[in-house]
Specification:
Site (Interaction with substrate rRNA): 3
Enzyme class: transferase
Bound molecules: S-adenosylmethionine
Number of strands: 10
Radius of gyration: 17 Å
CATH architecture: 3-Layer(aba) Sandwich
GO cellular component, one term: cytosol
Order of helices and strands: HEEHHEHEHEHEHEHEEHE
Function: Specifically methylates the adenine in position 2030 of 23S rRNA.
Strand content: 15-25%
EC number: 2.1.1.266
């Protein structure tokens, strides 16, 4: 297990993933019924952008670091909960911190909601435990995320989301994402699933998404962001499949994806994709 998210925290891929995560959490907050957010590959919870790892790659400067200038008002309205969550985490943990998914989830929990953070790396799981186990609403599990994905759903609340954000260190992880996601949706058809993927091997991602499109009996969205031309050797593009998306998300993504593609483009190339998959909603 060599992957360390501290080197990548706040990069363009985190911006897309975390913006969508916060929008989905805001949607869940609209009804009073409690929800559970399961983060199957949780990482450390939050990261210091002034720390050595973030400083070595400086990836955040081309992600979160490019969002300082405000966007037009209709885009800002969509970014507002994400910006507010980052500000709340900074208030709690320090001004140079960037939140990971557990910190963003924690900010969204009401007294009766639950967050479950799963992390397999022993040292990271220990850090997460220190950070989140005192809060009665959050629980840290030192477990394999793929096992957790199967065993923790459906949650007792029957309402909530699962974030699937593996490190893609081993070959075949894109294919595994597709098959495990389809299986998980079959087990919990009304759950909201967010599955993140890097786009290096474009054909492998397209095959995985086509498989999901055929297999899913539920509505889903493919949201991709390209900040440079596709390149098998470095991360220039990223995406998320969102199963059972909030009904407003496609329209929102039609606004924030082009804005992010333009703002985060590395040179003269920024692009996006927003496509419906699965059964119609
Ligand atoms: N979701 C986090 C966020 O948005 O802030 C980032 C997670 S990072 C991309 C992937 C994490 O999964 C790493 O912390 C890694 O140690 C952990 N990991 C790797 N293999 C795992 C497995 N089989 N089960 C659970 N966690 C795993």
């Amino acid at each position: 297990m060599n992957y360390r998210h501290a080197f990548h925290a706040g990069n363009f891929a985190d911006v897309l993933k975390h913006l969508v995560l916060v929008r989905v959490l805001a949607h869940l907050q609209r009804k009073p019924a409690p929800f559970r957010a399961i983060d199957a590959f949780a990482g450390l919870g939050f990261y210091d952008l002034a720390g050595e790892e973030a400083g070595r790659t400086a990836e955040w400067q081309d992600g979160w670091g490019r969002l300082d200038e405000p966007f037009p008002a209709e885009i800002e309205a969509l970014l507002e909960p994400y910006r507010a969550a980052v500000a709340a985490v900074r208030e709690r943990h320090g001004e140079s911190v960037y939140p990971g998914s557990p910190a963003l989830i924690r900010e969204a929990l009401r007294p009766t909601d639950q967050g479950v953070f799963v992390e397999l790396h022993p040292a990271d799981a220990e850090v997460l435990r220190d950070r989140y186990n005192q809060d009665p609403r959050t629980k840290v599990l030192h477990l394999d995320g793929w096992t957790a994905l199967n065993s923790l759903i459906p949650p007792p609340e029957r309402r909530g989301l699962v974030l699937i954000d593996p490190p893609y260190e081993v070959p075949g992880e894109i294919e595994r994402l597709g098959s495990r996601l389809a299986r998980a949706v079959a087990k919990w058809p009304t759950g909201l699933f967010l599955a993140w993927y890097p786009i290096k091997d474009v054909a492998a991602v397209d095959r995985m998404v086509a498989g999901l499109d055929a297999a899913l009996k539920r509505p889903a969205l493919r949201l991709d962001l390209m900040i440079d031309r596709p390149d098998p050797t470095r991360l220039t593009s990223t995406g998320l499949v969102v199963v059972n998306p909030p009904w407003t998300l496609a329209e929102e993504a039609g606004l924030f994806l082009p804005a992010l593609a333009e703002r985060l483009a590395r040179a003269d190339y920024g692009a996006f994709r927003c496509e419906a998959l699965g059964a119609p909603g």
